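Continuing from the previous page...

OK, I double-checked the sequence for Cysteine protease against my notes and this is the correct one:
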Amino acid sequence: MDKRTVSIILGVLAVFLIALYFIPIPGGPSGEPKLEYKILTSRHIISAAYKVYGRPELGLWVAKVILTNNGTSPIYDLKISYSIDKYSDWVEGGKYPVLLPGSTVVNLYYPIVSSEVAKLTTSTPSKVNIKITYVDARGAQKEITESKSIEILGAHDFIFTSLSPEENTGTFYDIFSNYPLIAAFVTPTDPVVREYADMGNKLAGGAGATLSDEEALKSLSGMWELSVYNGISYKTEPQAFWTGQVSQYVKYPRDVIRDRAGTCLDTAIFFASLAIAQGLDAYVVLMPGHAFTVVVLPQSRQIIPIETTTLNQKVSFEEAVQVGVKVLKEAINGPHYVVDIKGFQALGITPPELETLPPDTLAKWGIKLPSGMSESPSQGSSSGSPGQPSTGGSLQYTNPSPRWSMSYPKSWTVSQHGSYEVDFVYQDQALIVVLWVQGVKRQELRSYFENAMSQQGDLKVLKEQKVSVSGVQADAVAYQYSFSGQNFIIVARYFEYQGYGFIIFYQVFDQNMINTCESIIQTFRLG
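Thanks. Re-ran it with the corrected sequence; updated structure tokens here:
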């Protein structure tokens, strides 16, 4: 028998064995399958963080189904499907060709939850529906359906732990195990929050917060002063707030501004949002019975802890930091969590869609700058010309349509080219370009840009990553560019906003200018 014949015989035998293993044969194997299952469901869905449930990598399952075949014959074509009444359509969660006697599988449900849950004002009961289908060894179709109750929390409700009583040991780290989801309440891109932050920044003389540590501190101080002036205060939370046993009402930053009050967690989230709106890195620190804000300065990376409960005493920003330093030391010496807002939001723990508010919302709420100052944020003229020098040594350019702004050092020059491009230039050392085209997608814009540059010189991609530009997802690409015997570094960001394709890129001859260009671009704001 030759090798080819042997190969054919073995191939046919393999197909037969696979068919015997996976396909039920009527009147075939003796015995009966016995499917036993256990269903576990989460007690609640946190509406503010509804987007995280559809991301398996974050591990927040809503249902877990454990299936075991305790019979004496296989179970075939085992499928599990799920839905949530009103808020998530039926979807197949798992498919298993065969489940042998004595075998167990575990299936997890990560639902795509409807954004409608973000409109709920109070907790709403619902049901998780589970459907299990399979075929037994005789080819008979079987179906099992179950429903489990679940509570969908209101958009402001937060529960600090999703651990079951059996899993929760009662330690700080178990009681507050949902701490990453606090990032869903931080809203630096909310237009109301951005405008408020810009008003505070005006008190600092239009500081470009990311340009230097000094400018960052001025900006933070201005936003603090605005909050004190407008009477924003700390409201003592109820005794049960920090027990982790029941859901608690958490305000979004816009609510703190409107109500001029919030708990320590509310005001910590509020001030972190303001800092991030100005391009700074900010965190919320949780410790037993308390929460506070920490901001990192852009150059030295020094940590600035801010105790927002001192708003009640109308203390200066410097005094709030002094108290914050003491609280930070206490937190470090005990159990605590640090909410890495930008990090968690990059993973997908992002805020829900909030109601669109009118442009004059802050004025209607009575938010004002101190007497003698204009109540609109410091910006360039409506024609898109550079702004006036600030006390901090920076200017702000504002483009009227599409509306965007960016701060830059007064040693730079700005020029506008038509209605689609603005250039920021520092002598012959650095160039930053903002360019926009209506009706063009970011991938198309990238293709146009790379083709144009490649026609003039040699363009090589060094690195690509996803980033955020003023709260909008963008593609960031670093290039090496050679032209006329010279080598440059180009870093471009491609994104879309209100029907426009945008590219912001800088070109530097000296790598020492990269940090400066990055700091300027961090001040870019849409809207």
